[in-house]
Amino acid sequence: MNFSQATLLILGIYMCFTLYIVYKGAQKTKNIKEFALGSGFSPTVVGLSLAASITSAATFIINPGFVALYGWSAFFAMSVILPIGLFISLIVLSKSFRKYGSSIKALTLAQWVGKRYDSPFFSVLMAFFSLLLLTFIVLICVGLTKVIASAVGADELIVLVSLVIFVFGYRMFGGANSMVYTNTIQAILMIIVAIILITSGFGHFSEGIGAFWSKLDALDPKMSSSFNENSPLFRDWFEVIVCNFIVGIAIVCQPHIITKSLLLKTDEDVNKYLTVAIIVETLLFFVLFAGFYARLMFPDLMNDGVPMKMDGILSAYVVKQFSIGVGIVVVLGLIAAGLSTLEGIVQSLSTTITNDIIAPFAKIKEDSSSLSIINKVVIVILAVLAIIISYNQLINPNLSVGILAQNGVYAFFSAAFVPVLFGIFIKDTPKQAAIGASITAMVVHFSVYYGQLTPYTTGAIRNPAVAATLAIVSAVVVGSVLLFIYRNKQKITINQI
After folding, report:
1. Is 474 left (phi over 0), alpha (psi -120 to 50) or beta?
2. Nearest in space to 132 (alpha carbons), one of 442, 457, 495, 361
3. Does any domain span residue 432?
4. What is the CATH number of the domain that holds 80?
5. Is residue 198 in a domain?
6. What is the domain count for the chain?
7. Helix or strand run (H / E) with residue 302
8. In this structure, how many other beta carbons lie within 10 angstroms of the beta carbon of residue 300?
9. Is residue 197 part of a domain?
10. pLDDT in tens, 318-370
11. What is the pLDDT of residue 176?
């Protein structure tokens, strides 16, 4: 049995096991609320689920390619600076978000925002903004397709369609009751694979750390630099440190991340949940170090005489570096990394569309059984869109799929950040301040990115992190000004009365 056949066999067993878990979860899912939040879970399980959801195909497949191309500047930005911002934000926001979300029985981020500011309009607006997360779905589908197709030697279109049918199909039934447990299994696989990948190149350190960096510098003198002016994303302190720190803080405000705390049984579980998530996530972020090993294996970035695309560098490294047995485990881990995030996004996005867009317009009550049927239809539509857009990225990759996803996702959490921040820490925030901040963020992000308004957002590859940073800062300023204005108006009105 060769590598492709063995991988296909193990993948089939893994899929059958996943379907069994989904079946058991589906038996416990009777309505849209249970689909969204499940029946309450232990902090360890939810913490593992959070770590798995944060770590995506980008972490395990795409981002190591950035490291292979641009060196320490990419690793420092994405595996050190961004996680620091992320962890700070999780610690600061999670407990308060859960406390308020539980009290108002919020199922989605859009619903949380709408109820917090007593604005059905804002809920619908945030739900429409959530549609940008479809770009993240595309990223994961493309990344997983490349890994699986390379591992089993199959046509990419067949792999893509099969993948989407499988994942979107089981997500129609299991809901949170199955997602948390599939995420837990995926997290365990990812931990194993992270250790394998991180240690796979330890032989390069036999002559010391200095010798390791010397090998890389011989290929490209910028490989060990904190900033790489030859890169499109890691040129200076502003891109590497400022932008990634701010993005790390705001990235928590994605529905499949911030709402994880709502799955806990009690408020007292939050600390343990965060501890588990942060420890595991720290390990998983260090997977990017394998990008250095890949560059040493492919010094000229050629594989059998064919130029390598950034998105396929780590996959090529895995195929050449490991034996059949270990290689299969690694491939499963890479697939798990993608599936864990894909499940969460499909779950949150379908629930948001159903609960926060369709239900209000169709005037369907939250406890109506028809919402579960509508949710399944929504998932089918998302699946079709995912196949169409992902296939276009596979056959016509005029833009890095990583950049495509970043642009959409970064725009969304830029718009969500101030409403969540003000909603948690400023008691009497008027809805005008939150809505104004959210719209400002969206306008600034896309204006900076597509209008090429900065030196960082010009050329063929533009940096979405810069656009997001300026959007978030602008949103904070506008939100603060509107907060001051409308609070004063309220005081004047009260005094007049």
Report:
1. alpha
2. 442
3. no
4. 1.20.1730.10
5. yes
6. 1
7. strand 302-303
8. 9
9. yes
10. 878 888 888 888 888 888 888 877 887 888 888 889 888 898 888 877 666 78
11. 62
Residue recorded with tokens 């030697």: 153
Structure tokens at 371: 């919402």
Q: What is the pTM of this model?
A: 0.85
DSSP state of 495: H
- Residue 342 included in any domain: yes
Give me the residue label for tokens 């995030």: 341
Other Cβ atoms less than 10 A from the Cβ of 268: the count is: 10
Within a 10 A sphere around the Cβ of 364, how many other Cβ atoms? 16
CB 374 within 8 A of CB 145: no
Residue 494 has a pLDDT of: 47
H or E stretch covering 189: helix 176-199
Listed residue (439, 247, 22, 353) closest to 364, CA to CA: 353
pLDDT at position 479: 94
Domain range holding 367? 3-398
CB 282 within 8 A of CB 102: no
Closest CA to 123 of 471, 421, 359: 359
Instruction: Tell me which residues of the chain have a pLDDT lower than 50.
Output: 494-495
10 Å CB burial of residue 446 (0-12, 13-18, 19+) is middle
